[in-house]
Every structure is written in C-alpha cells, then in structure tokens.
Amino acid sequence: MALRMPEATEVVAERLARRAQARSSSGSLLVALSGIDGSGKGYTANLLHGALEGRGVHTAVIHADDWLTPPHHRFGRSPTARHFYENAFRYDEMFANVVTPLRRDGHVDAIREISGRSGFLQRHTYRYAEVDVVLLEGIFLLRRELLRSYDRTIWIDCTFRTALERALERNQEHLPPEQIEHDYRTIYFPAQRHHSSRDAPWERAGIVVLNDERLAAPARPGEAAASAA
C-alpha cells in the first residue's frame, strides 16, 4: 500500500488507532518508521503522533538516532558503508531498556546513557505510562532480523537527490556543505543501498509513504531510492 504525504498522515493514523484500540493485551502497538537518511522519518513520526493523540490514542515517539554508537565505533578506522550498517546502532540496549518494555507493558520508567550523533554520553529519562502506540523511527529498522519485533512497518520513500538536499539544508552536524555531500555519497547512501540489497525494506513494509515531490507515482520496489544519486 503506497500513500502520498500529507494525506498519508490521516489515513495511517486512523488505521493505527483502530488497530491499537482493538488490542486485547495491555501492551502497546509497536510501529517502525524507516527510510533513507533525509527521507522525513522524524517529521512523519511527529505528524502521526499529533494525529493519534488527537484521536485519544496515547503515543510515544522513540528516536533510534539517540542510540547511535560513538563515532569511532560506528564509522571505524577506515569508514565503509557495510561497517556503518552493521555498527551504527545499539539495537540490543534500545530494545531491552525501552522499546520492548513499552510494547509489552505499555509503560517504562528508565534512565539510560545515550549518545546520539554527537557521541557524547548523556543521561536521558524515558518515562511513559499508558501508551497505546509506540512510533520507533530511524534508518535500518527494517533489517530482516528485526521485523518480528514490530506490529506494523512503514517505509518513508524518498530519492537520494532530495534526501541530500534536505541534509544540506538542515546540517545537523554543522559541517561544511562539501563534507556533508562527501559523507552522504561515500557512507550513508552506500549503506542504504546495502540495506536495500540485503533486507528489501521497501517490499517488506506494510505501508509505503511517498515523501518526495520527485516521486510522481508509486515506484516499483526499490526504484525510488535507486533513482537519484
């Protein structure tokens, strides 16, 4: 199922709300939102959060980027796309300490050390109660070994060209534009291509959201991300 932004927000929120309200257990509906860097994962998660809360569905947004490994670990001595793909995130800790308790119980109260993109460890409090839906957003979440963890999966589709333009505009790392473009073309986008080849996230997602005006119509599986460099 492929939907276009911004209409997708209301359609997806309605589906998730119905699914969450139909659950017989006390836990939460765990939804993974993934896509390439710059596709709009966080933006979409925030829109869905607002739409769900407006329907009376208590929602928590968890950002996988908070669980990035320190730069020296995720990039390695000689950065490669595959190394970044395999070492960028502390998946085990993120699921064990926050995501799994939320999905199982609908609540969590934990203080954990996270690093985010900066690599500097800081204490962060995860305190949620009576959560109906957990929106987990980040790259590589649709790895095949993680799929069984989720109740619903969403792929935010976007071309590499648009993603790079967005990365240059937001410049989260406060780097020179040429450095950002170099990193995206040599590490981030090749890592995404490895992910696409290994895990086929577009095909495995239950819902595909088109978040790029360059995507005039639903692409064939994998077509959008491969269409621009």
Quickly list its features:
alpha/beta, two-stranded antiparallel sheet, 9 helices, 43% helix, globular
Tell me about this structure:
This protein has 229 residues and is of the alpha/beta class. The protein is built from 9 helices and 8 strands. It is 43% helix and 19% strand. The chain has a 6-stranded parallel sheet with strand order 1-8-7-2-6-3, with helices on both faces. The chain has a two-stranded antiparallel ribbon with strand order 4-5. β4 and β5 form a beta hairpin. The relative contact order is 0.21.
Flag low-confidence runs. Answer: 219-229
The helical percent reads: 40-55%
Gross morphology is globular
**End-to-end C-alpha gap:** 25 Å
What is the topology, as strand order, of the major beta sheet?
1-8-7-2-6-3
Structural class: alpha/beta
Q: Order of helices and strands, N to C? A: EHEHEHHHEEEEHHHEH
Mean of the pLDDT scores? Answer: 90
Largest sheet: 6 strands, parallel
Compute the number of helices.
Answer: 9
Q: Total number of β-strand segments?
A: 8
Rg for CA atoms: 17 Å
Beta-strand portion reads 15-25%
Topology:
Blueprint: E1 2-4, H1 7-21, E2 29-35, H2 41-54, E3 59-63, H3 71-75, H4 81-87, H5 91-105, E4 108-114, E5 122-128, E6 133-137, E7 152-157, H6 160-170, H7 177-199, H8 201-204, E8 207-210, H9 223-226
Parallel strand pairs: 1-8, 2-6, 2-7, 3-6, 7-8
Antiparallel strand pairs: 4-5
